[in-house]
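User: Run a structure prediction on this.
Assistant: Running it now.
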Amino acid sequence: MTGWTHVTAAAMLGLLAFGSALAADTSADEAAIRELKETLWPKAYFEQDTALLDRILAPEFQMVDGDGNWSTKAAELEWVAKNKPGYDSLTFEIRRLDVFKNGTAIAAGTGTIRGKDEGGPYVGQYQSTNVLIKRAGQWRAVASHVSGYKKVE
């Protein structure tokens, strides 16, 4: 091999290793965001766990609910503390997950609420889009938008 071939081969190996490291980081980030959005966030609301919700939401968190009302992190924590869930379960399925190199991510999907009301058992669904940032190795939500709630069963 010529000197140039050695340099090219070394550069290619370096790029492959760097690409593999980025893929591993992305997979770990995706797994962390899925855990946060599909497991921890619904758990915080269902169990009125404001300490957990406080760790999920960044200080500058703002939310727009299904009626177009704006809420801050402080207001959301207060609401969760005072309002016991009127449903039996809340699950969330991510339908879009994009993790960007600058430490931001978008997680969007469908929330499903199951419960019983005066009409009997029901299933309701809503759509939610969330913007997350990574700080000190932890993903935190900075924005959330909820829309389209409807009973589907």
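The longest helix spans residues 3-46.
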